[in-house]
Design a protein that fits this description.
It is built from 15 helices and 15 strands. A 7-stranded mixed β-sheet has the order 4-10-9-8-7-5-6, with helices on both faces. With 462 residues, the protein is of the alpha/beta class. It has 2 domains: 172 residues, Aspartate Aminotransferase, domain 1; 277 residues, Type I PLP-dependent aspartate aminotransferase-like (Major domain) (Aspartate Aminotransferase, domain 2). The structure holds pyridoxal-5'-phosphate. The site of pyridoxal-5'-phosphate has 16 residues, from helix 2 and helix 5.
Length: 462
């Protein structure tokens, strides 16, 4: 019997491990298989068209059908599909990318770029760079890394250890040692009764000072933070948070690593989250929108001071013995160069600034919905908290199936958003237009209404 393409795809699904899916639990329906992309929309293998309100995994800034990016890849594939950048070799796209990337981040102090393929690797490399730097500077005791509750920095052994989400640790034997955990600047989740944002910040600053005093500043190397925490629930920090935290870090000679993997390239309404929140990083990690995610590529950017330390260390060791096969991959670099050109030529940041008020206004209007206790957002990233009881902010019991219902109701509206515990996240491609923002929130509103009906039928809400 001849098998159709669809049957083959369905069978192959069984051979794939799907992240964040309980293994061996695909029911009759299986996963949603996406086949095509068109602007901010994607189409599944059944022909259903969805507004992709998460830009994939917070990443396809230019949507799903940018022809300039496609052409850049084709051209580079034809010219030179691969060449490495080890031991005195290089390729033109990776050089051009570094020039552009550093021109865009020079005001934040960045001076050199180290490439890899994913955000996790970029953060892993940041850790290795930090240890190498302090060893070279004669401070071999500076090893510990501070990272925050709800932080997400990836899943490799070290990045996964920096990540502050219990699910990413359980049974993976993470976190490894050398990681210290500190608080998350979310008044909604961690505020004490009557506490203001500024009081929360002062408490977190005091906690950080106490942690540093307890461990000894001479043992602590760096602090890792996303400007806006993404996978931890879209935590938008108070404006006073980073300046005050950084003052403590500076006083104690602790490096600041800005994980810009989600926030980089316009997401928060400025080119970088560090611009929006007044962060002065020693190291920045970027990925995702670096190539609009059309090719896997990430970078760890460092200041001249750090780079000089790496030079010193490599003189001692004979070489800087770190790098991955696909670092500075010419096709990925060429696509990233094109993405950066598009951001500049189309003034993507200006576009985000122009339409963000509509996005934030429609998001915040959802607070009047009986299931939504709070919303938060900045630029084109936002989230809402789904609760059973608005007065007490009590979330639904997972067994109630309400969040699962909402997830399905959103899909039935032909919209893609991302449930994170009791939070629903939205993070559309940056090219989204105002009518598409309205479409997104109209659909979300209908999905919430549908879910309210479900919760009422189950007598979970009145
Ligand atoms: C802020 C942040 N850092 C790092 C990562 C890890 O990136 P990757 O999944 O490419 O390894 C992610 C992924 O979502 C992220 O959101």
């Amino acid at each position: 019997m001849t098998r159709t393409h669809d049957q083959n795809v369905r069978d192959d699904i069984k051979n794939l491990i799907h992240p964040y899916t309980p293994l061996n639990t695909f029911g009759a329906t299986g996963p949603m298989v996406i086949r095509k992309g068109d602007g901010v929309y994607v189409e599944d293998d059944q022909g259903n068209r969805y507004l992709e309100g998460m830009a994939g995994l917070w990443c396809t800034a230019l949507g799903f059908s940018d022809q300039r990016l496609v052409n850049a890849a084709i051209k580079q594939m034809k010219d030179l599909p691969y060449y490495q950048i080890f031991a005195g070799r290089s390729n033109e796209p990776s050089i051009e990318l570094s020039e552009r990337l550093l021109a865009m981040t020079r005001h934040l102090g960045m001076d050199k770029a180290l490439y890899a393929n994913s955000g996790s690797e970029a953060n892993d490399a940041a850790v290795k760079v930090i240890w190498y730097y302090f060893n070279a500077m004669g401070k071999p005791n500076k090893k510990k890394l501070i990272a925050r509750e709800r932080g997400y920095h990836g899943v490799t052994v070290m990045a996964g250890s920096l990540t502050g989400i219990p699910g990413n640790h359980a049974d993976f034997d993470l976190p490894v040692d050398r990681v210290l955990r500190t608080g998350c600047p979310s008044l909604y989740h961690y505020g004490r009764p009557g506490e203001t944002d500024d009081q929360l910040v002062d408490r977190l600053v005091a906690d950080l000072e106490a942690l540093i005093a307890k461990e000894g500043a001479e043992t602590i190397a760096a602090f890792f933070a996303e400007p806006v925490q993404g996978a931890g629930g879209v935590i938008v920090p108070p404006m006073s948070y980073f300046p005050k935290i950084q003052a403590v870090l500076k006083k104690n000679n602790i490096l600041m690593v800005a994980d810009e993997v989600i926030c980089g390239f316009g997401r928060t309404g400025n080119m970088f989250g560090s611009d929006t929140y007044g962060i002065q990083p020693d190291i920045m990690t970027v990925a995702k929108a670096l190539s609009s995610s059309y090719m896997p590529i990430s970078a760890t950017l460092v200041t001249k001071e750090i780079f000089d330390g790496l030079v010193k260390g490599s003189e001692r060791n004979g070489a800087f013995s770190h790098g991955v096969t696909y670092a500075g991959h010419p096709v990925a670099s060429a696509v990233a160069v094109e993405a950066l050109k598009i951001y500049e030529e189309t003034n993507i940041v200006g576009h985000v600034q122009k339409i963000s008020p509509r996005f934030l206004q429609r998001l915040s209007a959802l607070q009047s919905h009986p299931l939504v206790s709070a919303t938060r957002g900045v630029g084109l990233i936002g989230a809402m908290e789904i609760v059973q009881d608005k007065a007490t902010r009590k979330p639904f019991d997972a067994a109630s199936g309400v969040m699962a219902h909402l997830g399905n109701a959103v899909l039935e509206q032909r919209l893609i958003t991302r449930p994170l515990r009791d939070t629903m996240a939205v993070c559309p491609p940056l090219i989204i237009t105002e009518p598409q923002i309205d479409e997104l929130f109209d659909k979300l509103g209908r999905a919430l209404d549908h879910t309210l009906g479900f919760a009422r039928d189950k007598k979970l809400v009145s």
